[in-house]
Design goal:
Number of strands: 14
Strand content: 15-25%
Largest sheet: 8 strands, mixed
Radius of gyration: 20 Å
Shape: globular
Bound molecules: (3R)-3-hydroxy-3-methyl-5-(phosphonooxy)pentanoic acid
Distance between the termini: 29 Å
Amino acid sequence: MSPDSRTLRAAAEAPANIALVKYWGKRDPALNLPAAGSLSLTLAALRTRTSVSFEPGLEADHFTLDGRLDAAAAARVSACLDLLRGAAGCRLRARVSSRNNFPTAAGLASSASGFAALVVAAAAALGLPDDPRQLSRWARRGSGSAARSLHGGFVLMHAGSRADGRDAFAEQLAPAAHWPLELVIAVVEPGPKAIGSRAGMAHGAATSPFHAAWVDSVAADLAAARAAIAARDFAALAAVSEHSCLKMHASMMASRPPLLYWTPATLACTERVRALREDDGREVFFTIDAGPQVKAVCRPADAAAVRAALAAVPGVHAVLHSPLGAGARRVEPAQAA
Ligand code: PMV
């Protein structure tokens, strides 16, 4: 029987991740190769479940997110599936159904968990080898941060230097149990972000006078963050993470026209985090991605106080939280969307 004459189905679940040393800029937009490395924490509580079924007779890929057709994302999903179809020698189109267990409308990036779940499910359905580096490279083509969601705990994304991108993949630095940390997310602006990371990065690279300096500075931040994680040195990790975040946003703000993702509530949350640390002695620091939400990283012992403090900041709509967790994994199709 030809491989294209039967339905090939599998499902997977992948976690969101949050970068402490940020990824912002590409060395090759076509292959989605990052200009510098990045380092992230994998979140146990924010996950995407995706089922993929390659079906004879389908004329086009079909993608739903949380039960609704998502035409905007469908082209990126198809482009990512094409890579795996190419590797497997399969021409079948697929039905892809994806569900986030966190509110999509909360304006939290779901592309990382989404593309990681997609490649793990699609590779399993197509019978491709379970090769974490290759899965990470395919996830990267969908979304740069998705390469990191393959792994749990503390994760390093390599920028690589090869033109073909074979050395641009993520790997685990340490499992979640190495250092229990908790993430608290203050949602200050529900709804989708105005300018996505892809367009924002291209705009920054083309117009920000600080972009090259930002890219050049990442290697030193990665070394500092790796040393802090190895030594479980909270103060050192806090310093390098807030520095990386603010430096990325400084470069964004210097773009023309400016890219300013913050709202007054964003800034109020960062001030609250600083006060918790400097006045109340809590071990906590903040980070912010290409949107207005503020993510605080803290010790589990301080998590309740951090959640209560951020929930009380005017303009905060909701507070989510998550411990660190494991990476992407296959699940039974019945368990998925
Ligand atoms: O994966 P992308 O293309 O959505 O880019 C993510 C960019 C940031 O979230 C701002 C930083 C990061 O490293 O996750």
